[in-house]
């Protein structure tokens, strides 16, 4: 049986019960040992890796927005809800600004598990409607931080806390993306650029690529005003808080130390993009036929910065991860495309 492990204090335990944080030091847990593929599946993963017209043959886009609920989170939800079901858990609670909530609601439905999702007040209405339509109960909180606190209060009333920012199974489920990229590209790319909020995808990429012969440089793109990883590496970024990157508004990611290690050990970097850069990137993507959400367009905006600064060369093979679907909120897309 795989084990929970805390890399900070050395805590280890069997995975025969639900633990989402280290009971000894309060830090984040990881999973050690071989883990079976998720039993609860909606067809997540194996997303296409393609070139888009107008971006050059060395820029590959990984279409994570084509996952069953329109975001990369489905990889983590499939794993986390499969494990919850294995442990006989009947109800779960999650906090999310939208995409994780939709994903966890869908996989809970597939697993026959009752779900409550705590959302911040400013959650996109369309995302909120999806969560409800999938059968989950919605609880509202003031902001993203308050949503996390409220979800953990509900946990003490008997529901297992998924907490994708913390959950070691969720992170584990993300790893498949790395081996997919290698097999689709036929090699490890030189660089991978991904939007980053709580770091689940970044860490999935890092842990997944660590199993291969080399690590690509991992570039983490954050939105202005929500850049804890950038700040931890370069010092505080002063900029107008993004209104567009609603999926990236995490200020205190619990895995910040791990995120920093992933970026620095890979030889990559953390970047910050503004709403103006997001609009330009989103517009380019839409015109190439990619219906993604503004938060996903940060990855392309980051690519443009890296090309302009010379940190990425034209001849390098680069993978840009497009994380979430724009079909979930047409209002935002229509604002941008006019
Ligand atoms: Zn610990």
List keywords for this structure.
338 residues, alpha/beta, Rossmann fold, 12 helices, 17% strand, binds zinc ion
CATH architecture of the largest domain: 3-Layer(aba) Sandwich
Spans where pLDDT lies below 50 across 5 or more residues: none
Residue-averaged pLDDT: 94
What class, by secondary structure content? Answer: alpha/beta
Helix content: 25-40%
CATH class of the largest domain equals Alpha Beta
Structural summary, described in words:
It is a single chain. With 338 residues, the chain is of the alpha/beta class. It has three domains: 1-34; 49-71 and 170-337, Rossmann fold (3-Layer(aba) Sandwich); 74-167, 3-Layer(aba) Sandwich (Rossmann fold). Helices cover 38% and strands 17% of the residues. It has helices spanning 73-86, 99-111, 125-133, 144-155, 168-174, 176-185, 200-210, 228-234, 256-265, 275-288, 294-308, 330-337, and strands at residues 3-5, 12-14, 30-32, 49-50, 59-63, 91-95, 114-120, 137-141, 160-161, 191-195, 217-223, 269-273, 318-322. The protein has a six-stranded mixed β-sheet with strand order 4-5-13-10-11-12, with helices on both faces. Strand 6 (91-95), helix 2 (99-111) and strand 7 (114-120) form a beta-alpha-beta unit. Helix 1 packs across helix 5 (168-174). The protein starts with a strand and ends with a helix. The structure holds zinc ion. Zinc ion (ZN) binds at residues 6, 8-9, 11, 22, 24-25, 27. Residues 6, 8-9, 11, 22, 24-25, 27 line the site of zinc ion.
């Amino acid at each position: 049986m795989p084990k929970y492990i805390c890399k900070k204090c050395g805590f280890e335990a069997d995975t025969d019960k639900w633990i989402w944080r280290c009971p000894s030091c309060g830090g984040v847990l990881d999973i050690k040992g071989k883990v079976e593929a998720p039993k609860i599946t909606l067809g997540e993963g194996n997303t296409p890796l393609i070139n888009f017209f107008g971006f050059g043959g060395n820029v590959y886009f990984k279409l994570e927005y084509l996952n069953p609920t329109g975001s990369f989170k489905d990889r983590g939800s499939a794993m986390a809800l499969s494990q919850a079901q294995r442990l006989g858990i009947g109800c779960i609670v999650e906090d999310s600004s939208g995409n994780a909530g939709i994903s966890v609601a869908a996989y809970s439905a597939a697993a026959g598990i009752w779900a409550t999702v705590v959302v911040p007040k400013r959650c996109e209405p369309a995302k909120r409607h999806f969560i409800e339509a999938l059968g989950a109960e919605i609880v509202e909180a003031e902001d993203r931080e308050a949503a996390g606190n409220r979800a953990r209060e509900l946990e003490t009333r008997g529901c297992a806390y998924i907490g994708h920012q913390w959950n070691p199974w969720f992170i584990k489920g993300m790893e498949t993306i790395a081996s997919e990229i290698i097999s689709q590209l036929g090699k490890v790319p030189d660089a991978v650029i991904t939007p980053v909020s709580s770091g689940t995808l970044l860490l999935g990429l890092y842990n997944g690529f660590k199993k291969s012969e080399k690590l690509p440089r991992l570039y983490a793109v954050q939105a202005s005003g929500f850049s804890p990883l950038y700040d931890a590496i370069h010092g505080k970024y002063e900029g107008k808080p993004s209104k567009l990157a609603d999926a990236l508004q995490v200020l205190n990611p619990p895995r910040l130390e791990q995120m920093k290690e992933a970026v620095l050990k890979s030889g990559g970097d953390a970047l910050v993009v503004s709403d103006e850069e997001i609009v330009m990137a989103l517009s380019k993507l839409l015109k190439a036929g990619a219906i993604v959400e503004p938060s996903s367009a940060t990855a392309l905006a980051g690519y443009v910065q890296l090309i302009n600064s010379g940190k990425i060369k034209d001849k390098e093979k680069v993978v840009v991860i497009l994380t979430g679907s724009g079909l979930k909120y047409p209002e935002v897309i229509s604002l941008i495309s006019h």
